[in-house]
From TrEMBL:
Residues annotated to bind [4Fe-4S] cluster 2: C159, C163, C166
Cofactor note: Binds 2 [4Fe-4S] clusters. One cluster is coordinated with 3 cysteines and an exchangeable S-adenosyl-L-methionine.
Protein family according to the UniProt entry: Belongs to the methylthiotransferase family. MiaB subfamily.
Ranges for domain MTTase N-terminal: 5-121
Annotated ranges, domain Radical SAM core: 145-380
Organism: Roseobacter ponti
Keyword field contains S-adenosyl-L-methionine: yes
Keyword vocabulary terms for this entry: 4Fe-4S, Cytoplasm, Iron, Iron-sulfur, Metal-binding, S-adenosyl-L-methionine, Transferase, tRNA processing
Main location: cytoplasm
Name under which the protein is recorded: tRNA-2-methylthio-N(6)-dimethylallyladenosine synthase
Lineage: Bacteria, Pseudomonadati, Pseudomonadota, Alphaproteobacteria, Rhodobacterales
Subunit structure: Monomer.
Cofactor: [4Fe-4S] cluster
Main function: Catalyzes the methylthiolation of N6-(dimethylallyl)adenosine (i(6)A), leading to the formation of 2-methylthio-N6-(dimethylallyl)adenosine (ms(2)i(6)A) at position 37 in tRNAs that read codons beginning with uridine.
Amino acid sequence: MTAPKKLFIRTYGCQMNVYDSERMAESLGGQGYVETQRAEEADMILLNTCHIREKAAEKVYSELGRLKPLKAANPDLKIGVAGCVAQAEGEEIMRRQPAVDLVVGPQSYHRLPEMEQSLREGKKALNTDFPQEDKFEVLKSRPKARRAPSAFLTVQEGCDKFCAFCVVPYTRGAEVSRPVSRILEEARNLTERGVREITLLGQNVNAYHGDGSDGVEQTLAGLIWRLNGIDGLERIRYTTSHPNDMHDDLIAAHAECDKLMPYLHLPVQSGSDRILKRMNRSHTAESYLRLIEKIRAARPDILMSGDFIVGFPEETETDFQATLDLISEVNYGYAYSFKYSSRPGTPAAERAQVDPAEADDRLQRIQALITKQQQEIQADMVGRDLNVLVEKPGREAGQMVGKSEYLHAVHIENSDAAVGDMVRVRIVEAKRNSLSAVSR
Ligand code: SAH
Ligand code: SF4
Ligand code: F3S
């Protein structure tokens, strides 16, 4: 028997890439690869890349430059680029960095086994097609190995919204939903392997509209209700949602579905209607605020999270103030803010850019406000009794770490809980990025 080949995967970008990396590792497992955490000992290195902002995309080339010398030590080493940079730049990647042997776009991962075969024959391999078949159906291998208590499950991919700043519709293609039966099958497999929390993923997850077994399309709410019936599964989350797809049945599920967690990531991007229009967001600040009112009426304790872009082309100080006002009105438990990054091929790239120093200044101001809100909401958790899904031991003796219903990281002191347990705790202190708790 020959020793198994070693695979090293580095993942950038969003959770969908994390999920895809797991699937690629399983697929290459079928080709005789086992995963390693050390690039130096790998026979194949895969970078699963992100194209969302310029910095993310450029990082890939500097990483490739660093990895290239490993080929001198191991002439059989193959280097591959997957993910959204692979989709966006294709062959150009091999031109810019000839050490790259394989380029594979996100819709073609089920082609990996045959691509790997080409590499064995000394050829380079490139595939950035958008094929019709469900890649996850072909990629499905159902390993039995134990899993960590919390897992991702992609249910929807792609985006038809075409926000003026965003590359996702180009790198991930049109919106596609997976059938309900396959998602349920995968969820059952995960729970059999120790998973107790599933986060449903999609670039526009609440636009989900998958085939039900009865030939009727299911919404995301319908899917969540089906998952709610799986024994052993205790928590359901989903991300990322678009305000326009936040329909009444999903809002009602937040009130009625006991396994659906009180946390919602609902990016708005800006609080200025003028900018939202220029972003092609097709909602207003007011409609977003009314939507949150409705969601909070259904589930008063829901923790809101969002994404913001500052320095979008033509954004004025007045527009930016409107964003700060919206943040103050919503009160976010988590929020992510980004300086606008001009992306080739997107409509906004052609427009007048905001002065970079001004954009930096706005980023600092928005982050200060967001941090203040986050910390106040964390401080409000002190004294409350919450449920924590235990994920791993902490750094200190006797400490276990997990997540609350609201997705806060919680350190439980002097705990005898095991990984995968759901424990009732009392929050005793709010730290900068986590909460401390004692068992109840
Ligand atoms: N599908 C999700 C998120 C996609 S990307 C959604 O619709 O909300 C994640 C976040 O990156 C976006 O919400 C946006 O805030 C940010 N982003 C996307 N393109 C960007 C760009 N060109 N520059 C800066 N931030 C960007
Ligand atoms: Fe990008 Fe907009 Fe689609 Fe989100 S909704 S992925 S921001 S185009
Ligand atoms: Fe990045 Fe692609 Fe995800 S661009 S954010 S890895 S969909």
